[in-house]
Each structure stands twice: as structure tokens, then as C-alpha cells.
Specification:
about 210 residues; Rossmann fold; five-stranded parallel beta sheet
Length: about 210
């Protein structure tokens, strides 16, 4: 049976997930799914005091992503309409494991597995990674007030967590292709040739899956 394309763009904060998902949506005419970020009422406090605000922040993200994926499944994928998202819900595990206390994390995992059961799974993942300097530069350029207090050490550790998680994900999900791009070497916003390179890679995988 032919798969309905569902692409997820992933990577650490500031790497360009939303920008690339938007470009993919425009180019392929896919439904665009953007995660809710600035609407999270706990996020500003989270960057000031991670220990105090991590559980509220992660629960807000989990519930909103759950609702978004329910809607994309029901109203788009089930109707044969391809989609691209600027996240995969597995990112919740990366952030929660890093920020939550052990007892909180155990409670969180139980809720996570209940909510994500039967969720739509992307059949292609684009992983954007970059050095700390590049991430900090891009975060500064987009100028979100809530991100002004991001600790560079937290961001560096998060990038490392992503690399480890993606390596494990690729081994555990051999049928889900992961295309990795180095944000230090490729800038699809400033260089449209880089964007064409990304589209070319996507085309190859879409042809194989279809």
C-alpha cells in the first residue's frame, strides 16, 4: 500500500526546523504542522529556572503536540494529504529526560506512552544539527524574548542528547530513513542552492518509499 508522505524535521533549538519545514511545505504543497512554542506560558520561566518549571513546560508541550498529531492524522493523513512537521513527538523524551527529576520523569513517561499510542509516525525524518556557536547565532538572530535566558551549557548538552538519540533511533527504526544535514556547512535560508540540495535528497527518499 502506498504511504502518504509524512516528513518530520528535527534538531536542537535554533537549528532551523521551522524554516525548513515551511520551505518543504511550500515546495511540495504539503500540509504544514508547526509546534506551539511561544504560546507555552511556562517557557520563559523554564529558561530562568529549569528545575522549578520543567514539569509544567514539558506537560504543556506534550498535550499540545498530542492534539496536533491527532488532528493531522484525522483531517489530513487519513484523507491521503501529505504533511510535514517541524518536530517529531519523540523530542519530548529528549527534553524530559534531560530536565525532569527522576520521580517526575517516571510519571511523565507513563503519560507519554499512553498519549502517543497509535500516533501517526513520520516515514521520513530530516535531522538538522549544528555547533553551539551556530545555534547561539541563529537564536540571537530570530530574537525571541523567551529565549534570551537560554544557558549555552544547556543548549550544548541538548545537542549532544540529540546526536545520541538520533543514532539510537536509526538503529531501532531501520525502516524510517533519517537524512542528516550539518547546519555549520549548509544554510538553506541564505543559499538557495543548499535548499535545492535538501529537496534533491528528499526526492530520492520519496521515490524509494513510493
Amino acid at each position: 500500500m502506498k504511504q502518504v508522505p509524512f516528513i518530520a524535521v528535527e534538531g536542537p533549538i535554533g537549528v532551523g526546523k521551522s524554516s525548513l519545514a515551511r520551505e518543504i511545505s511550500n515546495y511540495y504543497q504539503y500540509t504544514l504542522l508547526n509546534e506551539i512554542v511561544e504560546e507555552n506560558p511556562f517557557l520563559g520561566n523554564f529558561y530562568k529556572d529549569i528545575d522549578e518549571w520543567s514539569f509544567q513546560t514539558e506537560m504543556f508541550f506534550l498535550c499540545n503536540r498530542y492534539k496536533q498529531l491527532e488532528d493531522i492524522k484525522k483531517y489530513h493523513l487519513a484523507q491521503g494529504q501529505p504533511a510535514v512537521a517541524d518536530y517529531h513527538i519523540f523530542k519530548n523524551q529528549i527534553f524530559a529526560e534531560r530536565t525532569l527529576q527522576s520521580q517526575q520523569y517516571e510519571k511523565y513517561k507513563k503519560i507519554y506512552y499512553i498519549l502517543t499510542e497509535n500516533m501517526p509516525e513520520p516515514n521520513l525524518i530530516i535531522y538538522l544539527r549544528a555547533s553551539l556557536d551556530t545555534l547561539l547565532e541563529r537564536i540571537s538572530l530570530r530574537g525571541r524574548d523567551i529565549e534570551k535566558n537560554i544557558d549555552p551549557a544547556y543548549l550544548f548538552q541538548l545537542s549532544s542528547d540529540y546526536d545520541k538519540f538520533m543514532e539510537k533511533f536509526s538503529k531501532d527504526h531501520p525502516n524510517v530513513p533519517v537524512i542528516t544535514f550539518d547546519g555549520d556547512k549548509i544554510d538553506f535560508v541564505k543559499n538557495k542552492q543548499h535548499l535545492k540540495t535538501i529537496f534533491s535528497e528528499i526526492d530520492q527518499h520519496l521515490c524509494v518509499s513510493n
